[in-house]
Amino acid sequence: VGDEGEHLELTAVTKEESGSYECIASNDISSPDIRTVQVTVNYPPFISKARSTGTPVGQKGVLQCEASAVPRADFEWYKEDRRLFNGLNGVKIENQGKQSMLVFFNVSEEDYGNYTCVAMNTMGMTNASIILYGKNKMLVNCVRNYCNLIFKWKAFTLCMLAAVQRKKKKSPTLCYAVLYLFISAIH
Q: Is 35 a domain residue?
């Protein structure tokens, strides 16, 4: 507050100083006079959320980008150096407040790669790299098949061990039949 008590000077203002400020003038004669001033600090975009996402081929995929800025940021999306537009190439761009989403309705192999989210306002611009990658179904299937192979081998081994332990001559065909039933049950 100045020497005459009539002004407040804010220097090196940051976005944290945004908000309502009250000035109260009072004396012994009348009730206090209160005035409120809203201070808005403009600042360039700062991307606070940009997460890469894994999505299998044929599924819906979403890349999200969130930016804090005053005035509010506008968003653009790029794949490599090519700007993406809403509704083209099976993608939709949805902007909601400080968040932008790039939505793929049916992810294909060609969709995988590096995307750039650009956030801009009158104060400046920034960008973030976000990757759409595939969830490797092949790896999951291989792991599952490996597990199935272990279960199948254990079932066959148990069948053969049972035959040996009873010292009876069980036919391998019976063990394969047990194995077939076991395989059918786990699929």
A: no
